[in-house]
Write a structure and sequence with these properties.
73% of the residues lie in helices and 1% in strands. The chain is mainly α and 727 residues long. Among the domains are: 117 residues, no CATH class; 323 residues, Alpha Horseshoe (Serine Threonine Protein Phosphatase 5, Tetratricopeptide repeat). Strands 1-2 form a two-stranded antiparallel ribbon. Strands 3-4 form a two-stranded antiparallel sheet. The longest helix has 145 residues.
Length: 727
């Protein structure tokens, strides 16, 4: 960094000198002019040149000392190099003064040549003896002669030649070494080839031996494979036999499991039936215990104590059965031992009932004996009065039938009852008119939910099981009682609107009648489950029964019974509508077959209702619409003028459904009425019937003949038994 700064100082000094201000023309050589043409003053060094040269000399002297200290063997050579550097530097300066070149551009190559001479002291030979270098100047500026410059140039040339000779010798020696190395490499390569050939021969021999050994092993392995294949085929055959046996065993086990499941389900159903029967028998025990007794009667107190012991034993038996059922509730079928326990409990419960009956019979035997005569007298008196009344009614009906013209309108009491029912239905319809004609979206949604909750359960009534009917009854009863029920995923209650209960009762009664003219008309057996639910709802909510009768009388006037006269209508179509025919603007008047089918369905439903009672209701009071109404309907029907087809069809449907119940209730009087129908009223029906419409008349005639001949009417098809209610 110091030498660079000094060079910059030198360049700055030369730039400020008069020579640095010379004008240089790059085209002087083309014009043939001298480079110093136009320069009038003689060239001279600046007064600062001496200090600059002295600095440069001292710098190169230090470098030469450093070179001699780093390993030069000849101190004389170092001194000569220094003298040569000084001479060359001075000669360069003089030559630049003579040629007009700048000091800065000439100083650098002189320094480089000097450094080159110094850096190669071992290669260059000793300088010739005739070349004598002058000692370095001590003071001032020393100029070198051309002879010295020439001598220095020869020395440099000689050094270059010696260097080239040394390089040539080194190159030759290198070539000899390369040839020697090539010969050695060639020899070693040949030896390596021989060695590789030997190794390859050994490998082939080893490979051949390995192949021979592999062939032997292959043959042995093939033999072993054949043996293994044979063993495998044998094992496969045995395994297939075992698999077939296992599959057969699995099928047998599956069949046994299916049988076990079927037996388990059958045992479970039997267990449920046993539990239900045990609970019912236990309820009978409790009812007998809770029945009112005379506290003053000592025999009654003894009976209460014995019945209490029987009830306690019955509760224990119920607990045993409940314990067995609790085990089955965990997912297992009852075992044979469980069924044995349950059957034993049922047997014991029946024995308790029998014992209870014996106790009650023994306790009441005395009372019965004491009151037997009095009660018998009362029964005889009542029976005699009843027979006289029925006989009088039958004679009255017979006398009326013998008259020239029969009634065409019902009796005044019946007509008054009919009008009261219609007025009541109209009042109920008027009461929910606001809800029915509302335009509010919320009220419309409430009305729709109430309608669904009322009519959908009725559509679901079927003969599947008694529990299913009870679920439907409970749902309808809850709705009419103001409780919340679920319908289509929505909670609804009649208390959500003041007119909600009237609306639900009206639509429910209308749906019962519609089920009669549609469902019962197509399937006669459906009359009894619908009638059972309707009777239970009628008993709990009497308004539904009144609305049911009102809707039934509107759609089927023969259920009153009533046959509209032609004179009461303005036209034939109006008369047909009053009789119950459907009149549609598009299809016109309903056909006779469709009309009779609907009338038959509604009469069958009405006949089922008057003889059936909801088994889970209160049986203490009279039925809401019992058999007395059936006797009234039949008697009034025989007092009316018969209609073609209609009278025969409806009488046959009514007697087929309700004849067995009327026979059991009225006994002899019923047979008298049936005989009157066969001998006196049937000819009038036959006279009113056309020749081409004898089907209904024939069915009625065969029914009457069979019943009177056998003195027996079979129970109707589809009647609900106790087994059904336990299902």
């Amino acid at each position: 960094m110091q030498s660079d700064s000094r060079r910059w100082e030198t360049l700055e000094a030369l730039k400020n000198s008069p020579k640095g201000k010379l004008h240089y023309d790059p085209h002087w050589s083309d014009r043939g002019e001298d480079i110093l043409a136009g320069y009038e003053e003689s060239p001279s060094l600046s007064s600062y040149s001496a200090s600059v040269v002295e600095r440069l000399s001292s710098l190169h002297l230090n470098k030469s000392r450093f070179s001699s200290g780093s390993g030069d063997s000849s101190p004389g050579f170092s001194e000569n190099a220094h003298n040569s550097f000084s001479s060359c530097s001075i000669l360069s300066l003089i030559n630049r003064n003579h040629n007009g070149l700048s000091t800065v551009s000439s100083a650098s190559p002189t320094k480089q040549d000097t450094e080159q001479v110094v850096s190669e002291p071992s290669i260059e030979p000793e300088p010739p003896a005739e070349v004598v270098l002058s000692p370095p100047p001590t003071t001032g500026l020393l100029l070198v002669s051309p002879k010295e410059i020439k001598t220095a140039g020869q020395i440099i040339r000689c050094q270059e030649e010696m260097r080239e000779k040394a390089k040539l010798a080194v190159r030759r020696r290198q070539e000899e070494q390369d040839k020697l190395v090539a010969a050695v490499v060639s020899s070693e390569t040949e030896q390596l080839k021989r060695f590789e050939e030997l190794m390859e021969l050994k490998q082939r021999q080893d490979l051949q031996s390995v192949r021979d050994m592999m062939d032997r092993e292959t043959k042995e392995s093939m033999g072993r494979q054949e043996k293994l294949k044979e063993e495998q085929r044998h094992r496969t055959k045995i395994l297939n036999l075992r698999l077939r046996e296992a599959e057969q065993q699995r099928l047998r086990e599956a069949e046994l499991e299916r049988q076990r499941q079927a037996e388990g389900r059958e045992r479970l159903r039997t267990l449920n039936s046993i539990q239900e029967e045990v609970l019912q028998l236990n309820q009978v025990l409790n009812q007998a215990l809770n029945s009112p007794k005379d506290p003053k009667d000592p025999s009654a107190q003894v009976l209460v104590q014995s019945l209490a012991a029987l009830c306690q034993r019955g509760n224990q038996l119920c607990s045993q059965v409940s314990e067995v059922v609790r085990k089955t509730a965990e997912g297992d079928f009852p075992s044979v031992e469980d069924m044995t326990i349950a059957e034993r409990a049922l047997h014991n419960m029946r024995a308790l009932i029998h014992q209870q009956q014996e106790e009650v019979n023994r306790a009441e035997e005395k009372k019965k004996k004491e009151a037997e005569l009095e009660e018998q007298r009362k029964k005889e008196a009542e029976l005699k009065a009843k027979q006289e009344a029925e006989k009088k009614a039958a004679e009255t009906a017979k006398e009326k039938a013998k008259r020239t013209g029969l009634q065409s309108v019902p009796e005044d009491s019946t007509l008054k009852w009919y009008k009261e029912l219609q007025d009541s239905a109209d009042a109920v319809a008027q009461s929910f008119e606001e809800l029915n004609s509302t335009k509010d979206a919320k009220l419309k949604k409430l009305k729709l939910n109430l309608l669904k909750a009322s009519v959908i359960p009725v559509s679901q009534i079927s003969t599947n099981s008694g529990s299913h009917l009870r679920e439907i009854f409970d749902k309808i009863d809850k709705l009419l009682s103001g409780k919340v029920v679920q319908s289509g995923g929505t909670s609804v209650s009649t208390t959500h609107h003041p007119q909600g209960r009237q609306f639900a009762c009206y639509k429910l009664a209308e749906k019962f009648v519609k089920q009669g003219e549609e469902e019962v008309a197509s399937h006669f057996e459906a009359a009894f489950p619908i009638a059972a639910v309707a009777s239970g709802i009628w008993e709990q909510h009497p308004i539904v029964g009144d609305l049911f009768l009102a809707h039934l009388h509107r759609k089927c006037p023969f259920s009153i019974p009533y046959s509209p006269r032609r004179e009461d209508a303005t036209s034939d179509v109006e008369h047909q509508r009053m009789m119950g025919y459907r009149v549609d603007e598009s299809s016109g008047l309903e056909t006779d077959d469709s009309f009779l089918k609907r009338m038959s369905g509604m009469i069958r439903l009405y006949a089922a209702i008057i003889q059936i009672r909801w088994p889970y209701g209160s049986k203490q009071g009279p039925a809401p619409h019992g058999l007395n109404h059936g006797w009234r309907w039949l008697a009034q029907m025989l007092n009316m003028e018969p209609q073609k087809d209609t009278t025969a069809t409806l009488l046959f449907d009514f007697l087929e459904v309700c004849g067995n119940a009327l026979m059991k209730q009225y006994q002899g009087q019923f047979w008298k009425l049936l005989l009157f129908l066969k001998e006196d009223y049937f000819p009038r029906i036959k006279a009113a019937t056309k020749d081409g419409q004898m089907g209904s008349l024939t069915r009625l005639e065969q029914f009457l003949e069979t019943s009177l001949r056998n003195r027996q009417i079979s129970p109707p098809k589809g009647q609900l038994t106790s087994v059904f209610w336990r299902s």
